[in-house]
Design goal:
Rossmann fold; 230 residues; 2 domains; alpha/beta; six-stranded mixed β-sheet
């Protein structure tokens, strides 16, 4: 009896220490189920200049530092990964899958996101190839209740493989596609993503220019993590 009791006391103590030391005070069981496997697919095509790239990178990191986002990630034991994409054969997994079991996990992931260098030089825009590459990354993801691709872009596809085929492949694998449409003048990018990219359960958040990306990514993360479907 003494050994099991000692183990329980040590477990409670570890949880209390983690709660006191970690931002937000979360302490979750190690075997808690994963709610959402969320892949962030970030556009770095030729239409994204260096300043706009920095807005996306910093906006992502800042959103991940938001207390509500941290709470949703940790409480759901959700998993994150980041892909950068541009033209055909220009896709890179810049942050592999990591499950968020503590605020420290989220902070480390956010810090790496902020420090990530641009994976490719400026090129064309292939949304379909970005989706195909992103779908393949779920083979490496933790087993989660929901699987979501969160793709952002500031232009329509101008080269690459078939968008309907890429979208259908995601649907067949039970993956939801959501989008941030980064607009210039009008809402043409939002309409492109709404009609041709997102899945039936998905949704589009519109950012009016890259300066609105930080607001849009926070809004979208909260919606995806709290209510994963559209």
């Amino acid at each position: 009896m003494i050994a099991p009791m000692a183990r329980r006391i040590r477990a409670r103590s570890a949880c209390l220490v983690a709660a006191l030391l970690a931002l937000g005070g979360f302490c979750q069981p190690a075997n808690a189920a994963c709610n959402v496997a969320l892949l962030l697919a970030i556009d770095i095509s030729g239409s994204v200049d260096d300043g706009e790239y920095r807005l996306q990178v910093d906006g992502t990191a800042d959103a991940l530092a938001d207390p509500e986002v941290i709470a949703a990630l940790v409480e759901g034991h959700s998993a994150l990964a980041v892909v950068q994409w541009s033209s055909t054969e220009m896709q890179a997994l810049v942050q592999p899958w990591q499950q968020m079991t503590s605020p420290a996990d989220v902070a480390a992931f956010a810090d790496q996101a902020r420090r990530t260098e641009r994976a490719f030089g400026k090129a064309q825009t292939s949304v379909a190839d970005a989706l195909q590459f992103s779908v393949d990354r779920f083979a490496e993801a933790p087993d989660c209740r929901h699987r979501v691709i969160d793709i952002s872009g500031d232009g329509v596809q101008n080269e690459g493989s078939s968008l309907p085929v890429a979208r259908a492949r995601a649907i067949a694998k039970g993956i939801i596609i959501n989008a941030i449409a980064i607009e210039g003048i009008g809402l043409t990018i939002s309409e492109f993503y709404r009609r041709l990219v997102i899945t039936k359960e998905g949704f589009v958040v519109t950012a009016h220019g890259h300066v609105e990306y930080p607001r849009a990514i926070r809004q979208k993360l909260l919606r995806e993590l709290v209510i994963p479907t559209g």
